[in-house]
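Need tokens for this chain, all 217 residues.
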Amino acid sequence: MWSKIIAVFIAIMSIIYIFFIPADPVLTKISFKLIPMLLILVFAFIQPSVGLRKYKILIMTGLFICMLADGLIYWFIIGLITFLIGHVWYIFAFRHTKAAAIPKWGAFLLIAYGISMVIWIAGTLWTQEEFILAIAVVIYIVVILLMGWSAFQTANKFAIIGAILFIFSDSILAINRFIVDIPYSDALIMITYYGAQFLFAFSIYAHYSATRKNLLK
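Here are the structure tokens for all 217 residues:
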């Protein structure tokens, strides 16, 4: 019951932040931005995790780090590094529950995405002589690809969909900042971002349910 109530509040506060909170003052904007992530952390905390305590701790750590990054992203490089650290924690979590090899179609899509983004975004920055930023973008792309790859290996559909949404959110952010303005980019970024974090939190319960069913068999 509490999970459903908190999930509703997550949706409500996400909508309020995305569509109703003005850009100024910045402190108010940041405060409302963090509320959905705090609620997602609470949602993750109350999920049962018998036999999956380490996975739950790793996911919650990733959620907390990403929440910090939400505020720090206003200082872009610092925020980017913090998000990178959050991705690394998700990689640890997904590798801890590795259950299968990544399907060929998933591997193909991730590799094709990575090559395309490196050529487009990092390549553009390189031609603009933004060499350090171009290298940083390549590193970030590699890490989010590893996060997505690891999510596929969990065989947990919520972790997989969450990873895809997170990759999409980061892609919109990067394209909008470095390449071309995307209409409604803020809404697209935050809807997919909050969705990704919520699904990562829910993947704790999904793993618990799958483990419980296996034990009952």
